[in-house]
Specification:
By secondary structure, this protein is of the alpha+beta class. It has 3 helices and 2 strands. Helix content is about 60%, strand content about 15%. The protein has a two-stranded antiparallel sheet. It starts with a strand and ends with a helix. The relative contact order is 0.14.
């Protein structure tokens, strides 16, 4: 199993690709959507647009997280 070492508030942690991806799953725009729902002049179109933007951002985020993991893995292999 491929792993990398990342640093966070607990220190250094060894994670695999799935764990690394889960660490970034909290990065969402759901709070913006909640604000739109409770806005004075609520428009369902705004929420639909936010959903489309969120879907595209999640695609981009998944690519960036995967690329970051691959870069870290490559650096680890070079050191070995």
């Amino acid at each position: 199993m491929e792993t990398i070492t990342v640093s966070d508030w607990t220190g250094e942690v060894v994670v695999n690709r799935e764990q690394f991806t889960k660490r970034w799953n909290d990065a969402r725009i759901s709070d913006i959507k909640r604000m739109a729902i409770f806005a004075a002049d609520f428009d369902e179109y705004v929420c639909a647009e936010i959903d489309q933007i969120e879907a595209r951002l999640n695609e981009i985020k998944a690519k960036l997280v995967d690329d970051s993991f691959n870069d870290s893995l490559a650096k680890k292999e070079v050191k070995a």
